[in-house]
Queue: 4 jobs
Job 1
Amino acid sequence: MGAYEILAYLLLGALLGALGQGIRVIVGLKKKSDEHLTQPLRTWFDPQRPVVELVELGPSLVASASCC
């Protein structure tokens, strides 16, 4: 098994993991929207919050990956 094959498997695993998390988000938002049928989306979901959390998480991931 060569380095490119290992890298391909790692990338495939990362893509499938991201796909799974995306599906989990969609199901979670659907469940929440069913709970809040009478309220508009903006009253119980702030779309800026996940973006801010991802931006804050990015530098910590880079720092932890380069520690060793």
Job 2
Amino acid sequence: MAADHGTKKNIQWPMTECGRREVVMLHRVISVVAVSGLCACSGGTPGHDEMGLKYQKRATPVLQALALYERDHSSLPDSLDELTPAYLNRLPTQPELSLDAKSRQLSFTYAPSLPRIGKINCYAQLGDEQWSCQGYL
């Protein structure tokens, strides 16, 4: 009896239609898990990606203008539009800023670039130029 060394046999197992669907479904699950792993491993703190830092840079002058407005008027404006043109030449078009006078916060929300997914919400307390950001899916 001769030994069969080094030869590989390609064995094909018969697959039913049900088996094909299971293989396709398994492939999809593996793809989703792989993408999720990439997103989780993309690292970084919410708001510290390129877009988040760019938006914070654009929004910080609005924080500064709000502080000056409050100093001059002893109150916050009813609308950010009141900051122009006396305190700012113009408001940034992106990000879309929101002022909550009650909590004294300026905030914006944005969708980070891939591979991250979801939304990031960033806010800063008036009188403080430090931004805090939180991500959510």
Job 3
Amino acid sequence: MLLPLTYMLHEVIARMDHRADTVLRSELGISFNLFQFLAIVADEEPTDVTELASCLYISKAAVSKRLPSLTDEGWLTVGPDPEHGRRLRIQLTEKGRDVIVTGNALLEKTLSEVLGEDNVDPAELARFHGFLTTLNTRLLDTEDPWL
């Protein structure tokens, strides 16, 4: 029986998240949750609490609560934004950038191993990537603002 698309997407994502968490914990000693947080900072930097909360779909309070430990660990710098008096500027440190580069390579390698070079036609994979990109764009274009 063919499962509904929404169910299948959620199941695949849950399995990929679990695999990513296992690989990142084993190889880098960090959770996938931490990696996602740092990866979004990398995509948005310099950023602030409001923008991070919006991108992560969590509250500004949750972002603010997490910043001190990530700064103490050396992943991020947090300081005043010279253009906005009350805003904090959040950026990755070199340590943070290094973990993103290494983590992305590990996750891409893991996905390649799962797919197997002989198991998936490159043209089919390219079409699938295009479909996911289109789906993501449409979801972004039609979603309600988080905050």
Job 4
Amino acid sequence: MRPSDALVSHAVPSLAPPFASSPASLFVSYCPKKWVGYGGKCYYFSEEEKSWNVSQHFCSSFNASLAGIDTLQEKDFIMRYAGLVEHWIGLRRESGQPWKWVNGTQLKQQLFEVRAEGDCAYLSDVFVSSSRCYSVRNWICSKPDAYMKAKKNAMEGE
């Protein structure tokens, strides 16, 4: 466990810098234990290495998926938190096809470029790259935090 996990995992999503928290936010947790909250999502950063498929299966067992990245700010947060270790993210392509997230949406090219010629994407400490999906790496799961999930469910119930 990282030294900052205890504080960060209880941070309330806000517009403040990712590691900032107010005293009140320490009493509210929208993410499960050992998950990190940021921008309405919860993230799990693995400490072991698995293939892309096994990593996705692990995430699915927690009602999550390998991390999708919607904004440059989210990418920057994930890269800072992941540090120097390479992590699988939820981006994959079939040979000769465009990159797609695990939810089926296509990668927006203005978000970032994926380097190399592999079929599964991972984050390094400075860029997004790709390799063969059977390679082993750490991984990042993500899912909506409890507040965002409840808000979505309430809106769908209207």
